[in-house]
User: Fold this.
Amino acid sequence: MAFELRDHTADIAVAATGDTLAAVFASAANGLAAATCDEIPSMNGSAAGGDGPHDAAIGNAGSDRFSLSVTARFREALLYDYLADLIYERDVRALLPVDNRVTIHEPDRGVDPDDLEDQRTDGESGTELWRLDASARGIPLSAIDAREVKAVTYSEMAIEETTEGWRAYVLFDV
Assistant:
């Protein structure tokens, strides 16, 4: 599971890879965190990849995980909604979501997506939709040097299975 930040005009792109679809979604979410903060503190307060200026201030802060769930008709919409929810959670909680963990439930293959026009997920019959259950560890934004990532975009978004696993490409508005 990996990601690479790529420069893009007025945006930042994340090229993510993973062995599974869930792993590539988690990798894209970790890429969102990396786009927000150059040095992401680990659980023990040290920055991933080196010592950052705010490590002592973080200490054990940010060790609590929070959960979220998303449903969508299509994989791309699921990734978009998941990343948009992480940005929302970041803004509401004033926490940077890191160490993302994802489980994806695929829709019932016997259902044609074109037949879903008026169907909604009511908690009972969600098999026609993709569902994502995720958790993340939150690091206080006040303890890090964070850039604002405003939104996820559909522009150039791609999710594809390869011979090595999965890869996704996502642009964020900064």
User: Anything to note?
Assistant: Residues 59 and 164 are 37 Å apart (CA to CA). The mean pLDDT is 83. The beta strands are 2-8, 11-18, 65-72, 95-105, 130-140, 151-162, 165-173. The helical segments are 21-36, 55-58, 75-93.
